[in-house]
Amino acid sequence: MEDYYDLIVVGGGPAGLAAALEAEKRGVERILVLERAETLGGILEQCIHTGFGLHYFGEELSGPEYADRFIQPVLRSERIAVKLDTMVLEVTPGKPGERHSVISVSKEDGLRVIACKAVILAMGCRERPRGALNIAGTRPAGILSAGTAQKYVNLDGYMPGKTVVILGSGDIGLIMARRMTLEGAQVKLVAELMPYSSGLTRNIVQCLEDFDIPLRLSCTVVGVHGKERLEAVTVANVDENRRPIPGTEETISCDLLLLSVGLIPENELTRAAGVAMDPVTGGAKVNQDRETGIPGIFACGNVLHVHDLVDYVTVESQQAGAGAANYIQGKGAPAPEYISAKGIRGVRYVVPQLVNRKTAEPVKLYFRVGQVYKNAFVQCSASGTVLAKKKRPRLAPGEMEDIVLKPEQLAALPQDVELVVEVLEV
Questions:
Q1: What is the pLDDT of residues 44-96, one digit of tens each?
Q2: In this structure, are residues 80 and 31 in contact, taking their beta carbons and an 8 Å threshold?
Q3: Which CATH superfamily is domain 129-261 in?
Q4: Which CATH number applies to 1-127+263-332: 3.40.50.720, 3.40.50.10490, 3.30.420.40, 3.50.50.60?
Q5: Dihedrals φ, ψ of 224, to 5°?
């Protein structure tokens, strides 16, 4: 491993791989991918179900198949170096015009300080643990995050339980409801705190309805029972303030409780580097090139905001790779004029949060809504001028949406305006 690279990519999952390949495609000579696991591919390696690649490749692939489409060209590349089993400890921004530095540690190379012109942060996300939920009761064996159970079943060949309750209807939890059923377990209930599911509609249909697994909305786990091993959980309905309703408690015997209660972007490195963060997404604030507020430091994938489809992770990461390449080669937008973007009236967040109005390319704003809407309009406006508007038969928090702005529309805006994305109900 050398002490200088043009670009360092932190993370060898789908985001990091796509970003590295796009940067190489655009002429970046010396690229280093640092991955803390022993293999490339990230979480896709344990996602053996199909459903990946429909948007990007026009094919239905499993997670490992999708990852392999990017792993193989990275391994064949003469300009991309890969270091596995390597943990990045710190990203230190350089002063304007100076190089950044990345501190990493590994068994093979020890502690290294590596300089670079640009950094792409692609660390992905982690699951929210039980400790963040304040569930009363004991601490027996048999309480796992859905992703951990997925690794046990798909990669290690272990069955962590036979009678299952799942808390949360995120996509990993829905997929594991089906997976555990196919392996012979009885999934008794999927309980969701919110009055709507946080997973994709297709997963609700294919993973729950097709297997007659009940989904109970506005319901949560309020108690855990068992000493050495989980024996039962108590669930209860919740009111509009998400508080348990007395008298609705029900105790369900089970030996496994899976938690699918949200994902948290892995942004400890980002915060430590001094990057400005978005309190809603939990990721960095970026422009349309996915560049953070620190020049030369980019972010993409689930570390930026949690995506519903890996296909969108790939597209976004290619934007980050292209932006990093332009930065390294001095081809960035001359004298950019940024205007901010935000969500109101049902839109929880918008990414990117900053848009260069002097861009020559269309800008796609990604966003999520805060509740379920039917036959509603999505609109983007600035100072009362409608820039884009489209009707959507259904909007749901579990599915990411987008709206596209044309370069000529942005160029016609004054610099002191704000882009606003909102939901208009019919």
A1: 999 999 999 999 999 999 999 999 999 999 999 999 999 999 999 999 999 88
A2: yes
A3: FAD/NAD(P)-binding domain (3.50.50.60)
A4: 3.50.50.60
A5: -120, 135
Residues of the chain with CATH 3.50.50.60: 1-127+263-332, 129-261
Pick the CATH number of 336-426 from 1.20.120, 2.60.40, 3.40.190, 2.70.70: 2.60.40
Encoded tokens for 117: 């012109």
Q: Tens digits of per-residue pLDDT, 338-376?
A: 999 999 999 999 999 999 999 989 999 999 999 999 999
Whether pTM exceeds 0.90 = yes
List of long-range contacts for 71-74, beta carbons under 8 Å, 24+ apart: 71/17, 71/40, 71/41, 73/21, 74/17, 74/20, 74/21, 74/33, 74/40
